[in-house]
TrEMBL record:
Catalytic reaction(s) noted: meso-2,6-diaminopimelate + H(+) = L-lysine + CO2
Source organism per UniProt: Metallumcola ferriviriculae
Cofactors that this protein relies on: pyridoxal 5'-phosphate
Enzyme class, UniProt record, top EC level: lyase
Positions of pyridoxal 5'-phosphate binding: 247, 289-292, 389
Name under which the protein is recorded: Diaminopimelate decarboxylase
Length: 447
């Protein structure tokens, strides 16, 4: 298994993250538990900041908060000098509660409600990334009503087919996101924006997630800069910002080979320069929106092993106390992860097992055919790289409670999300009077 960030094996043979012994973390906080390595998260933010903003100045990095967001995460992102991509009223609310500077917020979403747009305007978010004509109409009406002029980007579907799982590919023509470029809809949208009570700042695209091929990004830059030139020629409007979205892939398991962030930055920036010069355009400010690559490798999940089912000659299932409720990615995208026995991290790998969760669902698998030492009930298993789209996609199927999360750094662990309790599960349940009464009658009849 590949070690990430500050992970190491200590003298007791236990896995440590952020200088904290995972066995101690399990005793103190229980399992399942999300563990976030603050040093690793900040290091990746800095890598991005240095590779784009520090080196090129006319470039900005926005953290895609859908990957993992809490108020504490907002603080880290703010301190590291990044902006924030939010995609819902809930993400915006979290940023607001954390006091995140609103001028650094980009508001995305393919079906923003009028309430969400009002919230964005009330709080003067930096940019609204308009996805469709319906949204443009609502925004126009709201802006006129309030005598404000929101600064907008248009989300463009460039027709770029990135190599990744179908469900996380977004640049192709057949996509629910954005104004389609190849059929002329995108240019129509720019023309429409000219007539609206908004200020056009630029264009955005996002070709998908967990992408390794740099050619896909180069292709996106080519298509988008050509579009910037078309916009200038057809409408006279200048594109000040070119937002290329996120999607930078990370290592989850054998075979995943991400490039260095700096390599990606240099490649993108050089191509933008080359193409804008070719079209004699002013160089726009370039933005990128990494989510997974910032949160993913910084997070891991600690589980306790329970039941084991061996079907001789077929498979050995090792069950843990979480599952598709805290990490739905294997079930949804056949995502592959590595695992390590955290309390026996120095032991020989002796068996091939499949890791299953505790949900009533055969698809509730966390990993197929992974190597572990001999295990027994009570052992701890850590799954690295669950920081992105783990907690943020967690759910309460089977009324399982969502795990808590700790931030670890230099031997200190601090809670950043409390584990849910059973009371939390029924917190929003409402008992209609009539059903409550019926039960009282029944109970009375029992005497
Ligand atoms: C518009 C947009 N920006 C950024 C991201 C972040 O992508 P990733 O987490 O792959 O970096 C996404 C999600 O795929 C997205 O839809
Ligand atoms: N949730 C997805 C990525 C989608 C990103 C949002 N556009 C994943 O876990 O890989």
């Amino acid at each position: 298994m590949k070690f990430h960030g500050t992970m190491k094996i200590n003298d007791l043979g236990h896995l440590e993250v952020g200088g904290c012994d995972t066995v101690d973390l399990a005793k103190r906080y229980g399992t399942p538990l999300y563990i976030f390595d603050e040093t690793k998260m900040r290091a990746t933010c800095r890598e991005y900041y240095n590779a784009f903003t520090e080196k090129y100045h006319n470039a900005q990095v926005l953290y895609a908060s859908k990957a993992f967001l809490t108020t504490a995460v907002c603080r880290i992102i703010e301190e590291e000098g990044l902006g924030l991509d939010v995609v819902s009223g809930g993400e915006l609310y979290t940023a607001l509660k954390a006091g995140f500077p609103m001028d650094r917020v980009y508001f995305h979403g393919n079906n923003k409600t009028p309430e969400e747009l009002r919230m964005a305007l009330d709080n003067e978010v930096g940019r609204i990334v308009v996805d469709n004509f319906y949204e443009l109409e609502i925004l126009d009406a709201l802006a006129r009503e309030r005598h404000c002029v929101p600064e907008v980007l248009l989300r463009i579907t460039p027709g770029v087919e990135a190599h990744t799982h179908d469900y996380i590919r977004t640049g192709q023509i057949d996509s629910k996101f954005g104004f389609t470029l190849p059929n002329g809809q995108a240019l129509e949208a720019v023309k429409a924006v000219k007539e609206k009570h908004v200020s056009f700042r630029g264009v955005h695209c996002h070709i998908g997630s967990q992408i390794f091929e740099m050619e896909s990004y180069v292709h996106a830059v080519d298509v988008m800069v050509q579009f910037v030139a078309d916009i200038k020629r057809e409408t006279g409007l200048a594109v000040e910002e070119l937002n290329l979205g996120g999607g930078f892939g990370i290592y989850y398991s054998d075979g995943d080979q991400p490039a260095a962030v700096e390599e990606y930055a240099d490649m993108v920036m050089a191509r933008v320069k080359e193409k804008t010069e070719e079209f004699e355009l002013l160089s726009p400010r370039v933005l990128v929106e990494p989510g997974r690559s910032i949160a993913g490798p910084a997070g891991s999940t600690l589980y306790t092993i329970g039941s084991v089912k061996e079907i001789p000659g077929v498979r050995k299932y090792v069950a843990v106390d979480g599952g598709m409720t805290d990490n739905i990615r294997p079930a949804l995208y056949q995502a592959k992860y590595e695992v390590i026995l955290a309390n026996k991290a120095d032991r020989e790998l002796e068996q091939t097992v499949s890791i299953t969760g505790k949900c009533c669902e055969s698809g509730d698998m966390l990993a197929w055919d992974v190597e572990l030492p001999q295990t027994e009930a009570g052992d701890l298993m850590l799954m690295p790289c669950t920081g992105a789209y783990g907690y943020s996609m967690a759910n309460n199927y089977n009324r399982l409670t969502k795990p808590g999360a700790v931030l670890v750094k230099d031997g200190q662990a601090e809670l950043i999300i409390k584990a849910e309790t059973y009371q939390d599960l029924i917190r929003n349940d409402v008992m209609p009077e009539r059903l409550a009464k019926k039960k009282e009658v029944c109970l009375q009849s029992i005497g």
